Here is the input.
Amino acid sequence: MKEQAVAKVYAKSILELGDERKIDISDELIKLTEVINASNNLENVLFLDLFTLEEKKSVFNEVANKIKVSGLVINAVNYLIDEKRIGLLPLIVKEVIVLDDDRKGFIKGTIEGSGDTIDQDFKNKIESFLKQKLGKTPVLNYQSSSLVSAGYKVTIEDLQLDASLDNQLEIFKQSVLGE
Here is the structure.
């Protein structure tokens, strides 16, 4: 939990600095994360303690210059390397994305169901309902789940709408048994 709080502070700080300099930090960090995730060697250099700080910074700076990220992102990641907190980078990126989406009025979530796909009209109705209730535009991804026999579960942050058959049966069972 402590790491999450620290990552949130870093994320807020880098977003504010990016705003001052008119840099889309979220996009740059997503691009950087995709490059890191695509290369096990790069990931190893940055996150394992087998390499010196100078080696990590040298490799990172080379990659950062090739993918053309801003000096702000380069300085921030170099700072994390110097402070031996580079392991927080994935958490920071996640927090930056969440904070950026929140500022833009978006909220992400998932719809779970038993089928392989969801009817687009039904998905649009769910999104419209959530937009009205939450005041933000939901971005929902559908995923098939073996835990849902019929119906749907919608999860957005700490909000869960469970219209699954399993949930309805559990409610019915509890009402009959008086539990």
Observations:
- The chain has two domains: 2-102, 105-177.
- The first strand starts at residue 106 and ends at 113.
- The chain has a mean pLDDT of 84.
- The two ends are 34 Å apart (CA to CA).
